[in-house]
Amino acid sequence: MSKRDTCEIYCYDEEKVNRIQGDLKTIDIVSLAQMLKAIADENRAKITYALCQDDELCVCDIANIVGVTVANASHHLRTLYKQGVVKFRKEGKLAFYSLDDEHIKQIMMIALAHQEEVKVNG
Question: Would the pLDDT of 112 be above 90?
Answer without folding.
Answer: yes
